[in-house]
Protein backbone atom coordinates (compact mmCIF):
# COMPACT_ATOMS: atom_id res chain seq x y z
CA UNK A 1 0.00 0.00 0.00
CA UNK A 2 0.90 3.63 -0.45
CA UNK A 3 0.17 5.37 2.85
CA UNK A 4 0.15 9.14 3.38
CA UNK A 5 0.39 10.25 7.03
CA UNK A 6 -0.28 13.80 8.23
CA UNK A 7 1.06 14.43 11.73
CA UNK A 8 2.26 17.43 13.70
CA UNK A 9 4.93 15.45 15.58
CA UNK A 10 7.92 13.46 14.30
CA UNK A 11 11.50 12.58 15.21
CA UNK A 12 14.05 13.95 15.99
CA UNK A 13 11.59 15.53 18.43
CA UNK A 14 11.20 13.61 21.68
CA UNK A 15 7.71 12.68 22.81
CA UNK A 16 4.97 10.06 22.91
CA UNK A 17 3.60 10.51 19.35
CA UNK A 18 7.11 10.62 17.91
CA UNK A 19 8.02 7.40 19.68
CA UNK A 20 4.75 5.71 18.71
CA UNK A 21 5.21 6.42 15.01
CA UNK A 22 8.87 5.47 15.05
CA UNK A 23 8.00 1.80 15.57
CA UNK A 24 4.74 1.89 13.63
CA UNK A 25 6.49 3.42 10.60
CA UNK A 26 9.33 0.95 10.75
CA UNK A 27 6.91 -1.96 11.05
CA UNK A 28 4.78 -0.85 8.09
CA UNK A 29 7.82 -0.21 5.88
CA UNK A 30 9.31 -3.60 6.80
CA UNK A 31 6.07 -5.19 5.57
CA UNK A 32 6.63 -3.66 2.15
CA UNK A 33 4.39 -0.60 2.35
CA UNK A 34 5.38 2.87 1.12
CA UNK A 35 4.91 5.47 3.84
CA UNK A 36 5.08 9.20 3.12
CA UNK A 37 4.82 11.61 6.05
CA UNK A 38 3.83 15.27 5.99
CA UNK A 39 5.11 16.87 9.19
CA UNK A 40 6.62 20.21 10.25
CA UNK A 41 10.30 20.93 10.65
CA UNK A 42 11.18 19.74 14.19
CA UNK A 43 10.22 22.36 16.78
CA UNK A 44 8.49 20.57 19.69
CA UNK A 45 8.30 21.31 22.61
CA UNK A 46 9.98 24.73 22.70
CA UNK A 47 8.36 26.13 19.54
CA UNK A 48 11.70 26.92 17.89
CA UNK A 49 13.67 25.00 15.25
CA UNK A 50 15.54 22.17 16.97
CA UNK A 51 17.96 21.26 14.19
CA UNK A 52 19.20 23.36 11.27
CA UNK A 53 20.08 20.38 9.09
CA UNK A 54 18.90 20.91 5.47
CA UNK A 55 17.27 17.45 5.62
CA UNK A 56 14.89 18.74 8.30
CA UNK A 57 14.12 22.19 6.89
CA UNK A 58 10.66 23.23 5.71
CA UNK A 59 10.14 21.92 2.19
CA UNK A 60 12.80 19.21 2.50
CA UNK A 61 12.21 15.60 1.44
CA UNK A 62 14.34 12.87 3.00
CA UNK A 63 14.07 9.22 3.98
CA UNK A 64 14.59 8.71 7.71
CA UNK A 65 15.75 5.77 9.83
CA UNK A 66 12.31 4.14 9.73
CA UNK A 67 12.35 3.91 5.94
CA UNK A 68 9.53 6.44 5.57
CA UNK A 69 9.86 9.40 3.19
CA UNK A 70 9.50 12.59 5.25
CA UNK A 71 8.14 15.78 3.67
CA UNK A 72 8.76 18.75 5.97
CA UNK A 73 6.18 21.53 6.19
CA UNK A 74 6.55 24.98 7.68
CA UNK A 75 5.70 25.91 11.28
CA UNK A 76 4.98 28.99 13.37
CA UNK A 77 7.22 29.65 16.40
CA UNK A 78 5.32 29.85 19.69
CA UNK A 79 5.76 30.40 23.41
CA UNK A 80 3.98 28.88 26.39
CA UNK A 81 0.37 29.74 25.49
CA UNK A 82 -2.22 27.44 23.96
CA UNK A 83 -3.23 30.00 21.32
CA UNK A 84 0.31 30.13 19.92
CA UNK A 85 0.45 26.35 19.68
CA UNK A 86 -2.96 26.30 18.02
CA UNK A 87 -1.84 28.84 15.42
CA UNK A 88 1.27 26.75 14.77
CA UNK A 89 -0.81 23.61 14.29
CA UNK A 90 -3.14 25.38 11.86
CA UNK A 91 -0.30 26.81 9.79
CA UNK A 92 1.53 23.47 9.63
CA UNK A 93 -1.68 21.61 8.72
CA UNK A 94 -2.53 24.12 5.98
CA UNK A 95 0.98 23.83 4.52
CA UNK A 96 0.62 20.06 4.71
CA UNK A 97 -2.55 20.29 2.63
CA UNK A 98 -0.73 22.42 0.05
CA UNK A 99 2.16 19.97 -0.22
CA UNK A 100 -0.17 16.96 -0.30
CA UNK A 101 -2.08 18.30 -3.29
CA UNK A 102 1.12 19.40 -5.04
CA UNK A 103 3.10 16.18 -4.51
CA UNK A 104 0.60 13.35 -4.22
CA UNK A 105 -1.77 13.81 -7.13
CA UNK A 106 -2.00 11.82 -10.34
CA UNK A 107 0.14 8.69 -10.38
CA UNK A 108 1.53 9.48 -6.93
CA UNK A 109 -1.81 9.20 -5.14
CA UNK A 110 -1.75 7.17 -1.92
CA UNK A 111 -4.10 4.27 -1.27
CA UNK A 112 -5.08 5.69 2.13
CA UNK A 113 -4.59 8.91 4.12
CA UNK A 114 -4.04 9.02 7.91
CA UNK A 115 -4.60 12.16 9.99
CA UNK A 116 -3.02 11.84 13.45
CA UNK A 117 -4.57 14.00 16.22
CA UNK A 118 -3.40 16.08 18.01
CA UNK A 119 -2.81 18.61 16.51
CA UNK A 120 -6.52 18.99 16.08
CA UNK A 121 -6.36 20.94 12.75
CA UNK A 122 -4.78 17.85 11.20
CA UNK A 123 -8.19 16.13 11.22
CA UNK A 124 -10.11 18.50 8.91
CA UNK A 125 -7.06 18.90 6.69
CA UNK A 126 -6.63 15.12 6.33
CA UNK A 127 -10.31 14.83 5.41
CA UNK A 128 -9.91 17.61 2.85
CA UNK A 129 -6.81 15.95 1.36
CA UNK A 130 -8.56 12.59 1.20
CA UNK A 131 -11.53 14.18 -0.53
CA UNK A 132 -9.39 16.03 -3.06
CA UNK A 133 -7.35 12.91 -3.85
CA UNK A 134 -10.46 10.68 -3.75
CA UNK A 135 -8.89 8.41 -1.18
CA UNK A 136 -10.22 7.03 2.16
CA UNK A 137 -9.13 8.63 5.43
CA UNK A 138 -8.28 7.07 8.80
CA UNK A 139 -8.52 9.45 11.78
CA UNK A 140 -6.00 8.49 14.45
CA UNK A 141 -7.05 9.90 17.84
CA UNK A 142 -4.24 9.56 20.36
CA UNK A 143 -6.29 11.37 23.02
CA UNK A 144 -9.99 11.29 23.89
CA UNK A 145 -11.21 13.94 21.44
CA UNK A 146 -13.60 15.69 21.72
CA UNK A 147 -14.20 14.63 25.33
CA UNK A 148 -11.03 16.33 26.50
CA UNK A 149 -12.55 19.67 25.42
CA UNK A 150 -15.05 19.35 28.28
CA UNK A 151 -12.10 20.11 30.56
CA UNK A 152 -11.19 23.32 28.73
CA UNK A 153 -12.21 25.44 31.71
CA UNK A 154 -9.02 24.18 33.38
CA UNK A 155 -6.81 25.36 30.53
CA UNK A 156 -4.89 28.61 30.74
CA UNK A 157 -6.45 29.86 27.49
CA UNK A 158 -9.64 28.97 25.59
CA UNK A 159 -9.32 26.51 22.70
CA UNK A 160 -11.66 28.58 20.53
CA UNK A 161 -9.00 29.34 17.95
CA UNK A 162 -7.97 25.75 17.31
CA UNK A 163 -10.23 25.19 14.31
CA UNK A 164 -10.37 28.76 13.08
CA UNK A 165 -9.20 29.00 9.48
CA UNK A 166 -9.20 25.19 9.22
CA UNK A 167 -12.04 25.60 6.73
CA UNK A 168 -11.02 23.02 4.08
CA UNK A 169 -12.52 20.14 6.05
CA UNK A 170 -15.32 22.00 7.82
CA UNK A 171 -18.94 22.61 6.92
CA UNK A 172 -19.37 25.84 4.92
CA UNK A 173 -19.40 28.97 7.09
CA UNK A 174 -17.77 27.53 10.21
CA UNK A 175 -14.38 29.11 9.55
CA UNK A 176 -15.88 32.56 8.93
CA UNK A 177 -18.24 32.39 11.89
CA UNK A 178 -15.65 31.34 14.47
CA UNK A 179 -14.19 34.82 15.15
CA UNK A 180 -17.67 36.09 16.10
CA UNK A 181 -18.29 33.39 18.67
CA UNK A 182 -18.02 34.07 22.35
CA UNK A 183 -15.62 31.91 24.31
CA UNK A 184 -18.48 29.90 25.77
CA UNK A 185 -20.16 29.48 22.41
CA UNK A 186 -16.96 28.40 20.71
CA UNK A 187 -16.17 25.85 23.39
CA UNK A 188 -19.74 24.50 23.21
CA UNK A 189 -19.51 24.20 19.42
CA UNK A 190 -16.21 22.35 19.24
CA UNK A 191 -17.18 18.91 20.65
CA UNK A 192 -20.06 18.27 18.22
CA UNK A 193 -17.95 19.68 15.39
CA UNK A 194 -15.06 17.33 16.18
CA UNK A 195 -17.49 14.41 16.42
CA UNK A 196 -18.90 15.37 13.01
CA UNK A 197 -15.40 15.33 11.53
CA UNK A 198 -14.64 11.97 13.15
CA UNK A 199 -17.79 10.51 11.58
CA UNK A 200 -16.65 11.71 8.16
CA UNK A 201 -13.53 9.54 8.41
CA UNK A 202 -13.68 6.08 6.84
CA UNK A 203 -12.25 4.59 10.04
CA UNK A 204 -10.98 5.73 13.43
CA UNK A 205 -7.90 4.38 15.22
CA UNK A 206 -7.69 4.97 18.99
CA UNK A 207 -5.33 3.87 21.75
CA UNK A 208 -7.74 2.64 24.47
CA UNK A 209 -10.64 0.20 24.71
CA UNK A 210 -12.76 2.60 26.76
CA UNK A 211 -12.57 5.42 24.22
CA UNK A 212 -13.26 2.99 21.37
CA UNK A 213 -16.45 1.94 23.16
CA UNK A 214 -17.46 5.59 23.64
CA UNK A 215 -17.05 6.26 19.91
CA UNK A 216 -19.05 3.17 18.97
CA UNK A 217 -21.86 4.37 21.22
CA UNK A 218 -21.84 7.59 19.18
CA UNK A 219 -22.51 5.65 16.02
CA UNK A 220 -19.00 5.17 14.65
CA UNK A 221 -18.87 1.65 13.32
CA UNK A 222 -15.28 1.16 12.13
CA UNK A 223 -13.19 1.83 15.23
CA UNK A 224 -10.03 -0.12 16.03
CA UNK A 225 -7.74 0.01 19.06
CA UNK A 226 -4.04 0.35 18.23
CA UNK A 227 -2.38 0.58 21.62
CA UNK A 228 0.86 2.31 22.45
CA UNK A 229 3.63 -0.07 23.40
CA UNK A 230 7.16 -0.54 24.68
CA UNK A 231 9.74 -3.31 24.43
CA UNK A 232 10.67 -5.08 27.69
CA UNK A 233 14.17 -5.87 26.41
CA UNK A 234 14.98 -2.15 26.25
CA UNK A 235 16.11 -2.14 29.89
CA UNK A 236 17.91 -4.55 32.14
CA UNK A 237 17.45 -2.94 35.54
CA UNK A 238 18.72 -4.20 38.89
CA UNK A 239 16.14 -4.70 41.62
CA UNK A 240 15.71 -1.72 43.98
CA UNK A 241 18.06 -2.29 46.94
CA UNK A 242 16.66 -2.95 50.38
CA UNK A 243 19.34 -0.61 51.73
CA UNK A 244 21.75 1.94 50.32
CA UNK A 245 25.17 2.95 51.61
CA UNK A 246 24.89 5.64 54.25
CA UNK A 247 21.11 5.47 54.59
CA UNK A 248 21.18 4.79 58.37
CA UNK A 249 18.57 2.08 57.91
CA UNK A 250 16.12 4.54 56.34
CA UNK A 251 16.76 4.35 52.59
CA UNK A 252 15.51 7.22 50.49
CA UNK A 253 12.44 6.36 48.43
CA UNK A 254 13.26 7.40 44.88
CA UNK A 255 10.38 8.32 42.61
CA UNK A 256 10.88 9.22 38.95
CA UNK A 257 8.56 10.80 36.41
CA UNK A 258 9.69 10.85 32.77
CA UNK A 259 7.58 12.57 30.15
CA UNK A 260 5.63 15.65 29.26
CA UNK A 261 5.21 18.25 32.00
CA UNK A 262 1.89 19.57 30.77
CA UNK A 263 -1.61 20.38 31.94
CA UNK A 264 -2.97 16.86 31.47
CA UNK A 265 -0.38 15.28 33.76
CA UNK A 266 -1.29 17.33 36.86
CA UNK A 267 2.16 17.01 38.40
CA UNK A 268 1.59 19.77 40.96
CA UNK A 269 -0.33 17.21 43.05
CA UNK A 270 2.69 14.88 43.02
CA UNK A 271 4.96 17.73 44.10
CA UNK A 272 2.58 18.48 46.98
CA UNK A 273 2.52 14.77 47.88
CA UNK A 274 6.32 14.71 48.03
CA UNK A 275 6.29 17.73 50.34
CA UNK A 276 3.64 16.14 52.59
CA UNK A 277 5.55 12.86 52.79
CA UNK A 278 8.76 14.64 53.77
CA UNK A 279 6.94 16.56 56.52
CA UNK A 280 5.84 13.19 57.91
CA UNK A 281 9.46 12.11 58.18
CA UNK A 282 9.70 10.11 54.95
CA UNK A 283 13.05 10.24 53.16
CA UNK A 284 11.93 10.73 49.60
CA UNK A 285 13.09 12.32 46.36
CA UNK A 286 10.91 12.97 43.32
CA UNK A 287 12.82 13.36 40.06
CA UNK A 288 10.92 14.90 37.13
CA UNK A 289 12.60 14.44 33.75
CA UNK A 290 10.89 16.32 30.94
CA UNK A 291 9.54 19.62 29.72
CA UNK A 292 6.25 21.15 28.70
CA UNK A 293 3.76 23.95 29.21
CA UNK A 294 3.64 23.50 33.00
CA UNK A 295 7.36 23.03 33.68
CA UNK A 296 7.89 26.54 35.06
CA UNK A 297 4.77 26.25 37.23
CA UNK A 298 5.84 22.87 38.62
CA UNK A 299 9.32 24.18 39.38
CA UNK A 300 7.86 27.22 41.16
CA UNK A 301 5.46 25.00 43.14
CA UNK A 302 8.32 22.78 44.30
CA UNK A 303 10.33 25.81 45.41
CA UNK A 304 7.36 27.35 47.21
CA UNK A 305 6.61 24.14 49.13
CA UNK A 306 10.25 23.27 49.74
CA UNK A 307 9.47 19.86 48.24
CA UNK A 308 12.21 17.24 47.73
CA UNK A 309 11.96 17.54 43.95
CA UNK A 310 14.60 17.79 41.24
CA UNK A 311 13.73 18.73 37.67
CA UNK A 312 15.86 17.68 34.72
CA UNK A 313 15.52 18.36 30.98
CA UNK A 314 14.19 15.75 28.54
CA UNK A 315 16.55 12.99 27.50
CA UNK A 316 16.83 10.85 24.39
CA UNK A 317 15.14 7.41 24.47
CA UNK A 318 18.57 5.79 24.78
CA UNK A 319 19.18 7.67 28.04
CA UNK A 320 15.99 6.93 29.97
CA UNK A 321 17.28 3.61 31.29
CA UNK A 322 19.66 5.35 33.69
CA UNK A 323 16.77 7.24 35.31
CA UNK A 324 14.68 4.09 35.65
CA UNK A 325 17.67 2.30 37.20
CA UNK A 326 17.96 5.14 39.74
CA UNK A 327 14.30 4.89 40.75
CA UNK A 328 12.46 2.64 43.19
CA UNK A 329 9.05 3.47 41.72
CA UNK A 330 7.83 5.19 38.55
CA UNK A 331 5.15 7.86 38.78
CA UNK A 332 2.31 7.84 36.24
CA UNK A 333 0.02 10.82 36.76
CA UNK A 334 -3.04 12.32 35.10
CA UNK A 335 -5.58 15.01 35.87
CA UNK A 336 -8.95 14.04 37.32
CA UNK A 337 -10.80 15.36 34.26
CA UNK A 338 -13.55 12.99 33.02
CA UNK A 339 -11.81 12.33 29.68
CA UNK A 340 -8.71 11.09 31.51
CA UNK A 341 -10.57 7.95 32.57
CA UNK A 342 -10.42 6.90 28.89
CA UNK A 343 -6.73 7.77 28.61
CA UNK A 344 -3.73 5.48 29.07
CA UNK A 345 -0.48 7.48 29.09
CA UNK A 346 2.12 6.08 26.73
CA UNK A 347 4.59 6.26 29.61
CA UNK A 348 2.57 3.63 31.46
CA UNK A 349 3.56 1.09 28.80
CA UNK A 350 7.19 2.13 29.13
CA UNK A 351 6.92 1.78 32.91
CA UNK A 352 5.43 -1.70 32.51
CA UNK A 353 8.35 -2.61 30.24
CA UNK A 354 10.88 -1.79 32.96
CA UNK A 355 9.44 -4.22 35.47
CA UNK A 356 9.74 -1.46 38.07
CA UNK A 357 7.07 -0.69 40.66
CA UNK A 358 4.56 1.92 39.43
CA UNK A 359 2.92 4.67 41.48
CA UNK A 360 -0.30 5.37 39.59
CA UNK A 361 -2.20 8.58 40.33
CA UNK A 362 -4.83 7.68 37.76
CA UNK A 363 -8.28 6.16 37.38
CA UNK A 364 -10.29 4.46 34.65
CA UNK A 365 -8.53 2.24 32.12
CA UNK A 366 -5.01 3.22 33.22
CA UNK A 367 -5.75 2.24 36.82
CA UNK A 368 -7.26 -1.03 35.62
CA UNK A 369 -4.08 -1.91 33.73
CA UNK A 370 -1.84 -1.29 36.75
CA UNK A 371 -4.08 -3.46 38.93
CA UNK A 372 -4.48 -6.29 36.42
CA UNK A 373 -0.73 -6.34 35.79
CA UNK A 374 -0.06 -6.31 39.56
CA UNK A 375 2.42 -3.58 38.68
CA UNK A 376 2.18 -1.27 41.67
CA UNK A 377 -0.14 1.00 43.64
CA UNK A 378 -3.07 3.13 42.50
CA UNK A 379 -4.46 6.22 44.22
CA UNK A 380 -7.14 8.64 42.99
CA UNK A 381 -5.76 11.28 40.63
CA UNK A 382 -5.04 14.72 42.09
CA UNK A 383 -5.15 13.47 45.70
CA UNK A 384 -1.82 14.53 47.26
CA UNK A 385 -2.69 13.13 50.69
CA UNK A 386 -3.46 9.67 49.31
CA UNK A 387 -0.26 9.64 47.25
CA UNK A 388 1.83 10.85 50.20
CA UNK A 389 0.37 8.10 52.40
CA UNK A 390 1.08 5.47 49.74
CA UNK A 391 4.70 6.61 49.43
CA UNK A 392 5.09 6.63 53.21
CA UNK A 393 3.89 3.01 53.32
CA UNK A 394 6.34 2.03 50.57
CA UNK A 395 9.22 3.72 52.36
CA UNK A 396 8.33 1.89 55.59
CA UNK A 397 8.09 -1.51 53.89
CA UNK A 398 10.24 -1.77 50.78
CA UNK A 399 9.08 -5.33 50.13
CA UNK A 400 6.25 -3.72 48.17
CA UNK A 401 8.80 -2.67 45.56
CA UNK A 402 9.29 -6.22 44.30
CA UNK A 403 9.25 -6.78 40.54
CA UNK A 404 5.83 -6.50 38.96
CA UNK A 405 4.12 -8.58 36.28
CA UNK A 406 4.06 -5.57 33.98
CA UNK A 407 6.26 -7.14 31.33
CA UNK A 408 4.02 -10.18 31.04
CA UNK A 409 0.93 -7.98 30.68
CA UNK A 410 2.67 -5.94 28.00
CA UNK A 411 3.63 -9.05 26.03
CA UNK A 412 0.07 -10.39 26.15
CA UNK A 413 -1.90 -7.22 25.49
CA UNK A 414 0.25 -4.57 23.79
CA UNK A 415 3.28 -5.98 22.05
CA UNK A 416 4.46 -3.98 19.06
CA UNK A 417 4.28 -6.75 16.48
CA UNK A 418 0.58 -7.27 17.15
CA UNK A 419 -0.17 -3.54 17.09
CA UNK A 420 1.52 -3.10 13.69
CA UNK A 421 -0.46 -6.09 12.40
CA UNK A 422 -3.69 -4.50 13.61
CA UNK A 423 -2.88 -1.17 11.97
CA UNK A 424 -1.89 -2.86 8.72
CA UNK A 425 -5.16 -4.82 8.69
CA UNK A 426 -7.20 -1.65 9.31
CA UNK A 427 -5.44 0.26 6.52
CA UNK A 428 -5.87 -2.64 4.10
CA UNK A 429 -9.56 -2.92 4.97
CA UNK A 430 -10.11 0.80 4.41
CA UNK A 431 -8.05 0.97 1.22
CA UNK A 432 -9.35 -2.17 -0.45
CA UNK A 433 -12.42 -3.28 1.48
Automatic annotation (TrEMBL):
InterPro entries (UniProt xref): Glyco_trans_4-like_N, Glycosyltransferase_grp1
KW Transferase (keyword) present: yes
Gene Ontology molecular function, alphabetical: hexosyltransferase activity
CDD domains reported in the protein's UniProt record: GT4_WbuB-like
Keywords: Glycosyltransferase, Transferase
Gene3D superfamilies associated with the record: Glycogen Phosphorylase B
Keyword match Transferase: yes
Protein name: Glycosyltransferase WbuB
Amino acid sequence: MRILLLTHYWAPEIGAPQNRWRWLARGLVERGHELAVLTPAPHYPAGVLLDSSPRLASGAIARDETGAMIHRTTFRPYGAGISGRGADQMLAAADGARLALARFGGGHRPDVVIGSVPGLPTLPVALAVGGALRRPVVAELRDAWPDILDSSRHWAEPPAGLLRRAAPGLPRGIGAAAPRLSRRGAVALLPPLVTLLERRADAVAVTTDSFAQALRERGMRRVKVIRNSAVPSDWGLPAPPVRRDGDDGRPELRVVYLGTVGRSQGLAAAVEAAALAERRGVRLRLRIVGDGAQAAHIRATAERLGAPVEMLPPVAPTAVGAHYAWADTILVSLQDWPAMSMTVPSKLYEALATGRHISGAVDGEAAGIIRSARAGLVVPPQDPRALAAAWAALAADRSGLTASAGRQWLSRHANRHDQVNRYEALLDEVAHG
